[in-house]
Amino acid sequence: MTYRSPGKGAIEYTKQFTEGLTQEDALPVISRILSGELIDASDKRVKHCDYCGYYWRDESLRNTRRTCSGECKTDIKTLQRRKQRADKELINPKPRKRTLQDDYIYWLEYPFWFNEYSMIKIGWKFEAPYDSETIDAVSANNQIYGEGNRMRHLSGDKKV
Ligand SMILES: [Zn+2]
Fold first, then answer.
1. What is the pTM of this model?
2. 1 occurs within a structural domain
3. Residues 78 and 150 in one domain
4. Within its chain, how far is the Cα of 115 from the centroid?
5. Considering the domain boundaries, does residue 112 fall inside one?
């Protein structure tokens, strides 16, 4: 049995057992209700709510309701629709719209862009180029100090 937040009908039904009790006294009573101990098995109107899972009493004329309250009914319908939609999507998936990211062939040994436009539109976010000033500074430093870690060179560490 899956329990969700109890609906109005379930609360109403439980209330008749716990009316006037303190919270501490009510807890063991509620657990006895949940175990079915206090439930009148001969009463065909007492049932589990299809949505919240708690016992409640169906007062409807034909005793055909399956949820304890309007809220539970709405919620179970939402749940059913969501499941239906997920099943439908699984069996007959909607063709997904192609995105620019699809032009990146990342799974090969040398990943590449299949389309230059996509590469320029998307690629720069992940491989942002330096601006020309930074490139100038880097190449100037390389000319002065050589390639590699300039800071290590300056600190006198000879292990270059
Ligand atoms: Zn309910």
1. 0.56
2. no
3. no
4. 34
5. yes
In this structure, is residue 3 part of a structural domain? Answer: no
Tell me which residues have their CB within 5 A of the ion that is ligand 1: 7, 10, 49, 51-52, 68, 72
Q: To the nearest 10°, the Cα dihedral for 75, 76, 80, 81?
A: -30
Range of the domain at 151: 100-155
59 with 127, same domain: the answer is: no
How many Å lie between the centroid of ligand 1 and the Cα of residue 85? Answer: 23
Output the CA 2–ligand 1 centroid distance in Å: 11
Residue 93: CA count within 13 A, CB half-sphere: 4
Provide, rounded to the nearest whole percent, the portion of the chain with pLDDT above 70: 92
Q: Among 52, 67, 91, which residue terminates a domain?
A: 91
Collapse the DSSP code of 63 into the 3-class scheme (helix H, G, I; strand E, B; otherwise coil) and give the result.
coil
- pLDDT one-digit tens code per residue, 105-131: 888 999 899 899 999 898 788 777 788
Is residue 6 classed exposed, middle or buried when 0-12, 13-18 and 19+ CB atoms within 10 A define those classes? buried
